[in-house]
Amino acid sequence: MNPLKRTAPALLAIAALVTAAACSADVRTAQPAPGRGTTETSVHPRATDDPSPAATGGAGQARAAGASLRRLQAQPLRITDITPMGEKTEKIGVGSPIIVTFDRNVKNKAAVETVLQVQAEKPVEGAWRWVSDRQVVYRTRTYWKPHQKVLFSARLSQIAGNQGVKDVSRRFAIGTANVSVVDTKKHVMKVRRDGKTVKTIPISAGRGGLVRNGVDVYLTTSGVHLTMGKKPVETMTSAWMGVTDPKDPLYYKLEIPWAVRISSSGEYVHQSAGAYQFLGRSNQSHGCVRATPAGARWFYGIAQRGDVVTVTGTKRKLDWRNGWSYWQLTWTQWKKGSALPNGVPTPTPTPSAPQDEMS
C-alpha cells in the first residue's frame, strides 16, 4: 500500500489554523495527529506512574510522589516517531523535512542536536529547528538533490546519562524532483519533473469572500507548500467553518477524487467536483486547488510526500507552522530555531550503521 494513502498529517498545525481552514476537507482529517508521522517506528511508552499524592494515600504520599517523579526522570530519552518512512516503504520529494519526535520534553536540546546526524549521497547544507519541546525538524538550505539516499542517525547513547538506550537510524530515498507552481491569476498549475516542465493543468483556486477573524478563509494561501499525503477519495464538508446543518446555504458534504493534501488546514490539489467550465478561467473553490479529472488523477499518481507546490497570486500568506510549510522561513530564520550556535552541528566522522535500524 502506498504510504501516502495511510499516513496521518504531521503535527504542526495549531488550532487557529485548523479553524481558519482555507479548503473544504472534513475537519477530522485536518486535525494534527501526534505521534503518527510513520507506522514503522517502535514506540517506547513513557512511565505511567501517577506522581500525584492522591494516587498513593497515607503518610507516604509526598515521598511516593517524589520517588515516582525521579523514576520518570531517570528513564533514558527515546524517539517515538520519525517522519518520513524508510527507503523500502516510500520515495520522498526534494522538499522533505526530517521530523523527529521524542517521548518527553527535551531539556538539553543542544546535546540532542549534536548526536543527530544527516548524511546524503549528494550533500547539501541543512539544520535542525525545534518546533516544540519534544519535536525537532531538519530542513535543508536548498532542496535535496533527487534520486539519492539519505541516512539519518540518532546516537542517543552518547548523551550524558542516556547510555542505556539504543542508537537508531533510518535511510530515506529521495525520488523525482516534482516541483509545481500554481498561478492563481492565470489559473494554471505547471509541473516540473527533474527540471523539465511536463504538464500544464487548468485549475481553479480559492474565490475569497468569507472573512473569519480578519482572515479570508476562502483564499488559497500563497507560499511554498509541501505535499503531506493523498487519498483516492476524500470527504470534504463545511464543518471546518462550523456549518453542520444541511439546511444552511453554506453547507456541503462531498466525496472528492484524487486529493493530495498540501497543508494541515485543509488545502488540497484535487479533482474539481463539476463546474469544469471555470477551470483555467476563474477562481471558484473554497481554498483548494481544483483541477481537471485527467490532470488531478495524473498529479495524484506522481505525488510523493515532500513534493514542492508553490502557490502564487493571492493576498493570504501561508503560515510556516501550517503543515510542512517550513520553506516559508528564510534560511537565516530557520537556523534561529536551532539550539546550536548558528544552527550548525560540530563535524562528526562518517557513522557506521547503528544497532537499532528503524527502516
Structure description:
Mean pLDDT is 83; it is low at 5-22, 26-56, 68-72 and 347-352. The strands form four sheets. This protein has a nine-stranded mixed β-sheet with strand order 14-19-9-10-11-18-17-16-15. The protein is 13% helix and 29% strand. The chain is built from seven helices and 20 strands. By secondary structure, the chain is α+β, with helices and mostly antiparallel strands. The radius of gyration is 22 Å and the shape is globular. It has helices at residues 3-6, 15-19, 27-30, 61-74, 109-114, 293-302, 331-335; strands spanning 79-83, 91-92, 98-102, 116-120, 126-132, 135-140, 148-154, 168-174, 178-183, 188-193, 196-204, 211-212, 215-216, 223-226, 229-237, 253-261, 268-271, 289-291, 308-312, 356-357. The chain has two domains: 14-34 and 177-326, L,D-transpeptidase catalytic domain-like (Beta Barrel); 70-176 and 332-349, Immunoglobulin-like, CATH 2.60.40.3710.
| Tally of helical runs | 7
Q: Give the CA-CA distance, first to last residue.
A: 16 Å
Helix/strand order, N-terminal first: HHHHEEEHEEEEEEEEEEEEEEEHEHE
Domain count: the total is 2
Structural class: alpha+beta
Describe the structure in brief:
The chain has 359 residues and is of the alpha+beta class.
Helix and strand topology:
Blueprint: H1 3-6, H2 15-19, H3 27-30, H4 61-74, E1 79-83, E2 91-92, E3 98-102, H5 109-114, E4 116-120, E5 126-132, E6 135-140, E7 148-154, E8 168-174, E9 178-183, E10 188-193, E11 196-204, E12 211-212, E13 215-216, E14 223-226, E15 229-237, E16 253-261, E17 268-271, E18 289-291, H6 293-302, E19 308-312, H7 331-335, E20 356-357
Parallel strand pairs: 2-8, 8-20, 9-19, 17-18
Antiparallel strand pairs: 1-3, 3-6, 4-7, 5-6, 7-8, 9-10, 10-11, 11-18, 12-13, 14-19, 15-16, 16-17
